[in-house]
Design a protein that fits this description.
Length: 209
């Protein structure tokens, strides 16, 4: 009988120890479960925050993409207009050069004609001398008129050349600007982190260029 009592006592003691171990394990499991629940709640909050930022990022990206697209279209139209105007100026320059050449030829012919007529064969008749003088004055007037026209055309030619140079510079600047904007659009479309930096710590993202 004593042996049976001792055996039951040992069993009770062993079961008590097992119960203590089970209770400790249960406490640890509850603590771990509470920690996991808190971590899960924090992760859900972060997910909601990132989801809101993702909407802002997509909206900002769409707006920026549209802005760059419109700017590229505008600059492309301006570039076409500048190129067209440049071609018109080239044609005008060519016409002015032809006019200058024509006036130079006419002036040269006039000067040669005057040199050939400096010593008239008959100088006795007073009326003839007067007629010759009047004719010379007329020729001089024509020469002065032609010379003024020549100078005006020369001035216009220099003006056109100056305008053309400005248009060429403006065209080159527009070409570079279109290339830069096209590159930035490509970076945006590809989501290149070197060009687009999104700050997800705030509700409003910022895009850096």
């Amino acid at each position: 009988l004593q042996a049976r009592v001792d055996s039951k006592t040992e069993t009770i003691v062993r079961l008590g120890k097992d119960l203590e171990v089970a209770q400790e394990e249960n406490r640890l499991v509850k603590a771990r479960s509470l920690t996991l629940e808190r971590n899960l709640e924090r992760v859900e909050q972060e997910v909601h925050k990132y989801a809101a930022n993702e909407v802002d990022i997509k909206t900002s990206f769409s707006i920026e993409k549209q802005r760059l697209t419109d700017m590229v279209d505008t600059l492309t139209k301006e570039l076409h207009e500048v190129l067209k105007e440049n071609e018109e100026l080239k044609a005008e320059k060519f016409d002015l050069q032809k006019d200058c050449k024509l006036f130079r030829q006419r002036i040269a012919k006039y000067e040669v004609a005057n040199l050939d007529g400096d010593t008239p064969a008959v100088a006795d008749d007073c009326l003839q001398r007067r007629s010759t003088a009047e004719s010379g004055e007329d020729e001089l007037g024509k020469y002065e008129k032609l010379y003024k026209e020549f100078k005006q055309i020369e001035t216009d030619l220099h003006t056109v050349l100056g305008i053309k140079e400005e248009l060429v510079l403006e065209r080159d600047a527009l070409v570079k600007k279109v290339e830069r904007l096209s590159t930035e659009m490509a970076f945006l479309l590809n989501g290149d982190p070197r060009r687009v930096s999104v700050y997800i710590d705030t509700r409003q993202p910022r895009v850096l260029f």
